[in-house]
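Translate sequence into structure tokens.
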Amino acid sequence: MDRMLEIIAHRGPDGAKQITHNNYTLGHRRLAIIDLNTGDQPIYNEDETLCIVFNGEIYNFKELRQELMAKGHIFSTQTDTEVILHGFEEYGTTFFSRMNGIFAFALLDIVNDTLFLARDHFGIKPLHYYHNSKLLVFGSEQKSILLHPKVPRQLNKQALHLQLNLRYTQGDETLFKHIKRLPPAHYLKFSKGNIEIKKFWELKYNNVNQSITEAEAIDGMHFYMKQAIERQLISDVPIGVYLSGGLDSSTIVQKMHELGAEQINTFTLGFNEPTDEFPDAERIATHFNTNHHTLSLQMNPLEKFPEVLWHAEEPKINLLQGYNMSNFVRQHVKVVLGGLGGDELFAGYDIHRFTNPFNNLHKNMPRWMKKVGQFKSQILFRLQNASGILSTDEYRRGMQMLLALGNVEKFYLIIRNAWDYDDRFYQNIYTSNSLGEALRLNKVHQYFDSLFDRANNLKALEQVLFVEMQSKMVNDYLLVEDRMSMSNSVEERVPFLDLDLVNFANSIPLHLKIKQNQTKYLFRKAMENHLPPKIITKKKWGFTVNPYLQFKKDLKEVARKILTKEFVEQQGIFNYQYIDKIINYKPHPKLRWHYNYLWIVMGIAIWQKMFIETNNFEKQQFDLNEYFSN
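Result follows.
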């Protein structure tokens, strides 16, 4: 247990403690945010029949605490953690749905010899577990679980296939074959060696208020956004804001200013690229007189990629910016607010703009036209693949997307880069020796079928919004936000995923969220008198890198160093000829998908060396030369 706690010390540098009851051992690393003096964990209830270790914040804990005190519960601390114990004592697992916050916890019922694990409504905080026979091992990060001597370390090829398609792993899969993720809004009950997983809350899109006016919706947005941000300012340590200069983060600053925050600390990151958002962020910082900090980086995967991969435990293209930003922020604050969630709630991405015009066509497309579209889609792939011209790949994908009209799920997954609808493309990705096994893996759509089925009575864009909240949001964006902030002991909060705000946003009709195909129409209208005009109309970008520019800078040379013919063939998974073709193809802005693919394959190579092929992944020395000595 000591080693398991030490390897995640970055998540809680302010203290460590463990306890043992019968066959259970619970451990905790503390990042002290609330009740700095009496908030150490594990925490017990009055008669020490319940015990908890908890990661996160419960924003409505004061209201819940008052309710429980009125029922006779006695508290010994001022923490939100203790509220979970007494709430469970009073209401059982039904209490979990009432907690508005970010949380992952393990609660031990000592009398009944039963352990409960639970994860918040939207999966903001991570929780992983390994179960075999009578053994259950859990942790915030997978690397701590791997330190248990009975947990094997093997590559999960199904999860790898998902990564190659989506650039994230969907469902409860992880890259480790035997380690699972507890889904959001679920709890796991472990008793007598057996586990039972149940959902305690469900995201719904069927409570839309069709009679609400635009003015009423705007009033509601202001109320719920202000309430959410006020709740998330609760802290006994300083708080900052990730300020990109976009609509979401600027709104957070505006609401903090409206709430009378005395000193607002804002932070902006750039990469010395034309898309850097320093001017817009500076405009907001000046407008609201914030204490503004900027960081300009020269991105270099060779320098930091192994380190961020160690923290993330899976390769992703959007890790470096988050890691460097939190490393910068921790010099000033311990808690930071981010704008994630605003686009998912109010239709702010380009994918929503692409989907919206086809709402009626998706619903009314004749069956025979769907079949013709599928047939022509396959022909397009074969023609483009045979040509060998990589730069036309994006146009082929666009045509295949249009030919998928009538099938919202396929349309969406093609936009999201999934390629495994085309069986022949497997030959590009996988080596001949691994091709047969790859073709037997579950296809990406099998992880989305049930989500789209649950939303099949909605318009196409509504289906996409519903699905994204339970797929890319949790397994890509939120994973990156948590891992990269906590890698530097910074807690990131996401006000737009406040439970009350989400429920209100989902009650707003689609025609108010996007109008005349303008993304975030209602959001822009709500904020037009509160933010500078340029912020209202600006195109979304955020703290992100351009894969084409990054390839020309250094990704090409790093990939060439790592993905040699000898290494790739020895690895036995990927088709070296396709990798080599991308590396040596003339750089082109239309090859973004290919550069992202290179990034993932390169990451898998480092990941395997780091976690599978070495017994010393605890050692935090991240020099590529340790793994690749070409």
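Note: The chain has 30 helices and 16 strands.
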